[in-house]
Amino acid sequence: MRNLSFRVPRGGTLAIVGESGSGKSVTSLAAMGLLKFTGGRVTSGRITLNGPDGSTEITSASENVLRRIRGNRVSMIFQEPMSSLDPVFTVGNQITEALKLHRGMTSRTAKDEAARLLDLVRMPNARQQLDRYPHQLSGGMRQRVMIAMAVSCRPDLLIADEQTTALDVTIQAQILQIIRDMQAEFGTSAIFISHDMGVVSQMADEIVVMQGGRMMETGRARDVILTPSDDYTRALMAAVPRIGAMTGRDAPRPFPLLGEEDIAADHAVPEQAEPLVKLEGVTTRYDVTSGLLGRVTHRVHAAEDISFQIALGETLALVGESGSGKSTVGRTLQHLVAPVSGWILYRGTDILSLDPEKRARFKREIQYVFQDPVGSLNPRRTVRQSLIEPMRVHNLLTDPDRQVAELLQAVNLPSEHADRYPHEFSDGQRQRICIARALAVDPGLIIADETVSALDVSVQAQVINLMMRLQAERGLAYLFISLDMAVVERVSHRVAVMYLGEIVEIGTRRQIFENPQHPYTKRLLKAVPVMDPDTRPERVDLSGDIPGPVRPVGNPRRPHGFVEIASGHMMADDHQLFEQEQQGEIQA
Amino acid sequence: MPILGYIAKRGLQAIFVVVAVTLFISFAIRLTGDPAVMMRESANVTPEDLERVREGLGLNRPFLVQYWDFLSGLVTGDLGASFFRGPIAPLVSDALGATVLLALTSLVVSLIISIPLGVYAARHRGSVSDQIIRLLSLTGLSFPNFWLGIVLILIFSVSLRWLPASDFRSPASLIMPAVTIGVILTATNLRIVRTTMLDTLNQQFIMVARAKGLSERSVIYKHALRNSSIALVTYLGLQFGSLMGGLVVVELVFNWPGMGTLAVEAIAQRDYPILQTVISFLAIMIVAVNLLVDLVYMALDPRIRLE
């Protein structure tokens, strides 16, 4: 990183945006004087903290001075709530640490103050939570603990590094709300580090755009978002999926990326007589055993009574938050797990009743592309080996060299790269290789499980455009599993919203996004941060967490039917029950 | 309390382990020779004499009857008598005491040395002192323990005449056997501490602790060490069996009057009752240590506490 300058005004919020490797996290560590613990250092320049008792130079301060500043005048919220808290100490212990250290409190008063702080971040039963351990809390609750810890000494500056990236959207909305409340309460300045333009647009007064360790653009948030002056910023903004950008269009269309504007045409589904794949009443549960004899006491109701169909050339998006069972549906469809009941018809054949040999043929027809391209490619195999293997298994290998070259070409990779290993590629390229591997066996349906979620926005847009092009060329059907509503709006023909293992609403993209009916769908859509600096976000309800789908044996959720809103637009008829549950009137 | 249920479950397991191990040992040792033959002192013993000896020792009864007698003795606390050396109970209790003393001394000494050194090496990874510590640890690992024992005896007993070479007469007798075991233990523990500490120091919650403004001491000895000690405890539990194996050899080298020496003597004399008892106690000890490790593990790591 070099030559970066910015100032954060008192009480104001600055956002640093950029893609991976842009140096935005290094900036935050430097501001805390923590860089030396990662093996880096500030070679030139100054970082100054101005406070009521004079200013401090972070870059030249001694470790003793820095320790008094850290957690006290400058504090930080880290990205991964799952790994930011020490697993072996209670939440209370970890919050009181800073209070005792910086505010000289005794154990007893620190504990009271910690309870008050947890209350402030709207932690239910704050006092009891003090004695719990991090693993007993959900990601959203842990992030609340982190925030309570960060504001415990009323810092002048709060640095939040991708603080909501790992969270579900409804939880993200709560956390952002809490941070805004804390800033208002304590008059804290903040630096937000994020790749999510929606979040940035909601929180920031000023924006710094970084790429490859350089500052590309800086200015007032509104100006940078609406009228970016730098080419990189413009490209970045074009690649950001914006919810509502597709309003009024029936069919999905690719991102209008620089140099790819010509392909931005609608992708309609071709007319056809029967669906490619059809699920009817598919239910998948996992047993939870306990006790000496391993009796089944609870069941995870991962997918309950799931019915939908996908036509050739169509994309059905499955959206929902953690524990909604969307990945279970994907795995059931690829027979990685066996359903308890229900039918899966593929081109009219009931594939669950087939004998294993015949079923193998259908395994070829349905391919999976996972979220993590690093973990799903064998690091000791070249791209060629990874591509050839599935073709050999299914006896499709005729001319290996030509086939590999064609596959790489199809995903826009040079065929000379066939003999490289996965680590020689970027994340986006690796995800293309995974797609090529899925294409190798000429499938009818590809299950894309969070395929683009971990990618930088510009890369994400390219991969999505690629997937849409392949769909048009080959008539592929996609089951697109995602929690990013803006991406879903861009790619899908139809959308199914899942909550606790059940489909609560299904319909065409326009029906779901333009006329959502089920309260959960509405809540989900409202929680998505919108990249529009002119609308300030609505206040969200701060209570509540996402419940889990584990239920005791013999106590299944009450089955529900569907009401038809419009042709092809169905909503679960339990919506009143859902609203009552949300208000805590009855137990789920 | 679920914890009591858990202990009961492990106790049940211990019973199965002891039965399985002793049954096997009792059976196997009977294949290797006849104690009656070992007992005859002169060459002119008649077959009738041998039969009388067997009858006297109860060896003419069916194997399972003999085994059942032993098991019921173990349960009622009546360990019976050895073939050659009188009542077993005092023999085994003396030997057990000596072995536990030796094992605990080596363990404590090794932890006192390996934890600070391992932490230091992890914090100064790649530095000269880290290299030296790793080299020392590798050297320690490379010594076969019997050889180290003999070399120590040659230096400190034979040449310098500072320490007694064998037996357990004074606290000074403890030094060399404990050092011999301790060197190997320290060398491996050092590596475990260093590696797990390095892992832990790279965790995000360590950076969070630093970002709170905690002192390095608090970061290292409160947050990092408690987390890395989980792996160390697991490893110590797994290592206990081989530590016992090592003890047997070292006890023999120093003629240390422990369980190992007792077992080896009993094997040489085909003294079934002693051997069966020693093996049972070793099996119980291993199960007990593993239970202890599990309990410590639960105390250290709330994630695996029973719900």
TrEMBL record, chain A:
Catalytic reaction annotation: glutathione(out) + ATP + H2O = glutathione(in) + ADP + phosphate + H(+)
Compartments in which it is found: Cell inner membrane
SMART domains tied to this protein: AAA (SM00382)
GO molecular function: ATP binding; ATP hydrolysis activity
Annotated EC: 7.4.2.10
A GO cellular component annotation in the UniProt record: plasma membrane
Domain of life: Bacteria
Membrane topology: Peripheral membrane protein
Every ABC transporter domain range: 1-237, 277-525
Keywords: ATP-binding, Cell inner membrane, Cell membrane, Hydrolase, Membrane, Nucleotide-binding, Repeat, Translocase, Transport
Gene Ontology terms describing biological process: peptide transport; transmembrane transport
Chief location bin: membrane
InterPro entries named in the record: AAA+_ATPase (IPR003593), ABC_transp_ATP-bind (IPR050319), ABC_transporter-like_ATP-bd (IPR003439), ABC_transporter-like_CS (IPR017871), Oligopep_ABC_C (IPR013563), P-loop_NTPase (IPR027417)
Protein function: Part of the ABC transporter complex GsiABCD involved in glutathione import. Responsible for energy coupling to the transport system.
Family membership: Belongs to the ABC transporter superfamily. Glutathione importer (TC 3.A.1.5.11) family.
NCBIfam families, alphabetized: oligo_HPY, PRK10419.1, PRK11308.1
Assembly, per entry: The complex is composed of two ATP-binding proteins (GsiA), two transmembrane proteins (GsiC and GsiD) and a solute-binding protein (GsiB).
PANTHER family named in the record: GLUTATHIONE IMPORT ATP-BINDING PROTEIN GSIA (PTHR43776:SF15), TRANSPORT ATP-BINDING PROTEIN (PTHR43776)
Name of the protein described by the UniProt record: Glutathione import ATP-binding protein GsiA
The species this protein was found in: Palleronia abyssalis
From TrEMBL, chain B:
Species of origin: Palleronia abyssalis
InterPro entries referenced in this protein's UniProt entry, alphabetically: BPD_transp_1_N, MetI-like, MetI-like_sf
Family the UniProt entry places it in: Belongs to the binding-protein-dependent transport system permease family.
Pfam family, one: BPD_transp_1_N
PROSITE patterns (alphabetical): ABC_TM1
Record keyword Transferase present: no
CDD domains according to UniProt: TM_PBP2
Protein's GO biological process: transmembrane transport
Membrane-crossing segments per the record: 12-31, 100-122, 143-162, 174-193, 230-254, 274-300
Segments forming domain ABC transmembrane type-1: 96-297
Its membrane topology: Multi-pass membrane protein
Assigned GO CC terms: plasma membrane
Name listed for the protein in its UniProt record: Nickel transport system permease protein NikB
Entry keywords, A to Z: Cell membrane, Membrane, Transmembrane, Transmembrane helix, Transport
